[in-house]
Amino acid sequence: MQPRPWPRIPEATVRAARAAAGTGEYPLAMRVRDELGELFSDAEFTEAFGTRGKPGWSPGRLALVTVLQMAENLTDRGAAHRVRFGMDWKYALGMELDDPGFDASVLSEFRTRLVAHGLEERALDLLLKVLQDKELVAAGGKQRTDSTHVVAAVRDLNRLELAGESVRAALEALAAAAPEWLAGAIDVPAWGKRYAARMDSW
């Protein structure tokens, strides 16, 4: 990865995005680019990327995609779709209108690299610094944020609850369809104690 400045917004993208926005308030992605400029420079993420191989997507722009993704509560696939089809996102990222963007897997690979190199909070730190410099937030105050660690823990818990509820639903279906077979296949009292209540009640 060779750090490079963000591209200027192509004129065709500027015209199309501003025409689509009309006279109302510009979408968040466009306001971020207009008011905050090159929010995340590639140089901030160089230690997580090699210097050899085929050039990939700019890590600075991937960081912005990740921020916009969280702001709009999108999956990786949804964010990649917005990059491909959303004029406001193309405006923010300085992309041509016919640029196809990237595969959704690029986002998970990007996050994995950041975590592996201890850079998972770099984007938040850079964002807060820019906002403080522009006096959009007060320096030194407490800022509420969705910690990536908390979000990851909640997702793990959701997966565990989903697995437990799947087992409980399957046992209830078997109890109704084949109660005699079920009684001979498992220790009903022990399983009943474990799965009688919903997983999220634990």
Number of strands: 0
Task: Give the amount of beta strand, in percent.
Answer: under 5%
SSE run: HHHHHHHHHH
Low-confidence stretches: none
Q: How far do the termini sit from each other?
A: 47 Å
**Largest sheet, if any?**
none
- Structural class, judged by helices and strands? mainly alpha
- Helix proportion range: 55-70%
Averaged pLDDT: 82
What does the radius of gyration come to? 23 Å
Count of runs of 4 or more consecutive helical residues = 10
Shape type? elongated
Structure explained in plain terms:
The structure is a single chain. The chain has helices at 11-21, 28-36, 59-71, 76-85, 87-93, 105-116, 122-133, 148-177, 179-185, 188-195. The protein is mostly helical and 202 residues long. It is elongated and about 70 Å long. The mean pLDDT is 82.
Write out key terms for the chains shown.
202 residues, mainly alpha, 10 helices
What is this structure, in a nutshell?
By secondary structure, the chain is an all-alpha fold. Helix content is 59%, strand content 0%. The protein starts with 10 loop residues before the first helix and ends in a 7-residue tail after the last helix.
